[in-house]
Design goal:
The chain is an alpha+beta fold and 362 residues long. It has 13 helices and ten strands. Its EC number is 2.7.12.1.
Length: 362
């Protein structure tokens, strides 16, 4: 039902006509606005409570230098206090059961179930200047991945030595995987205490608010980052020989001498030599366009076939120098990139290749 109010001037002429909804709908609309405002106000108070709790109790009053046992008991005390605070707040309890805000409440409870220092994916929220375990001062973030992140830290317990700390996500399956990794690293440390075989060294590990943290010696750049900082210039052939032998020896010792592994090593060696990636990665579903029953299946006279004939060139045309050692390297790469896996060189055969003869003489 709609009502029309007509306002006239003194002469009886209509001047303004206003249309409005009925009074009941108008009051209902105002009521909804008031309730929405009340919910927003409660949400604001909840967020402010979380911020005040984090700032006042988990940062300001925690001493910078304390014993590990004190740190653990303090974290337990903080968690229990937080739980008591949430249980004793009727406003937050009402807010959790409010149907209009149900999805937000579920998300809120998921956040509160973890440490208040975690993001949605379980990463520890940290920044430069933060201190882990009252000892490791964060300097920079080195990288981030599916399991967690790696940060560069100053170890104040070792005279300011720089280390790398791997901070695992506060997620159950990643914590379990981290414990398995720790067992492997401890085995490596015990069997090679003097780092004769140049395996990565774990210095220690600890728990930080549910995050498994593994402390490593700080190593150099990854291969890609090194090449990038070197303006994508190729490696010297002597360096390629050293790295190629180590890769083949390591993979072969693991019992992974599969033809696909040999192909991957061949790709790595040609990238070392040229300074750039030869085979660009792409989406896996595109392989169905060119492969059938794991065999290459494409029409030579199609547009793709013409592209291959026009753009692809023999492997030896990538050679920068045609001396004996370069010839040996490209012979090894050619045999590693043999298309037919049955004909492809094995890692046992690769380790006996003439390209590595200079290493054996030393």
């Amino acid at each position: 039902m709609k009502a029309t109010v007509e306002v006239t001037n003194g002469r009886g002429d209509p001047t303004v006509v206003h249309k409005r909804t009925d009074i009941v709908n108008h009051i209902t609309s105002l009521k909804n606005l008031i309730e929405a405002g009340s919910l927003n106000e409660r949400d604001y108070r909840d967020r402010r409570y979380i911020d005040e709790y984090r700032n006042d109790y988990c940062e300001r009053y925690v001493p910078r230098h304390y014993h590990r046992d004190v740190e653990s008991s303090y974290r337990i005390h903080c968690r229990k206090s937080s739980v008591r605070s949430r249980r004793s707040s009727p406003k937050r309890k009402r807010n959790r059961h409010c149907s209009s805000n149900q999805s937000r409440s579920k998300s809120h409870r998921r956040k509160r179930s973890r440490s208040i220092e975690d993001d949605e994916e379980g990463h520890l929220i940290c920044q430069s200047g933060d201190v882990l375990r009252a000892r490791y001062e964060i300097v920079d973030t080195l990288g981030e991945g599916a399991f967690g992140k790696v940060v560069e830290c100053i170890d104040h317990g070792m005279g300011g030595m720089h280390v790398a700390v791997k901070i695992i996500k506060n997620v159950g399956r990643y914590r379990e995987a981290a414990r398995s990794e720790i067992q492997v690293l401890e085995h490596l440390n015990s069997t090679d205490p003097n780092s004769v075989f140049r395996c990565v060294q774990m210095l220690e590990w600890f728990d930080h608010h549910g995050h498994v943290c593994i402390v490593f010696e700080l190593l150099g750049l990854s291969t890609y980052d090194f090449i990038k900082e070197n303006s994508f210039l190729p490696f010297q052939i002597d360096h390629i020989r050293q790295m190629a032998y180590q890769i083949c020896q390591s993979i072969n010792s693991l019992g992974w001498s599969q033809p696909c592994d040999v192909w991957s090593i061949g790709c790595i060696l040609i990238e070392y030599y040229l300074g750039f990636t030869v085979f660009q990665t792409s989406l896996s579903y595109r392989k169905h366009k060119y492969f059938h029953h794991n065999q290459l299946d494409w029409e030579e006279h199609s547009s793709a076939g013409r592209y291959v004939r026009r753009r692809c060139k023999p492997l030896k045309e990538f050679m920068l120098c045609h001396d004996e050692e370069h010839e040996k390297l490209f012979d090894l790469i050619r045999r590693m990139l043999e298309y037919d896996p049955v004909k492809r060189i094995t890692l046992d055969e690769a380790l006996q290749h003439p390209f590595f003869d200079l290493l054996k003489k030393k």
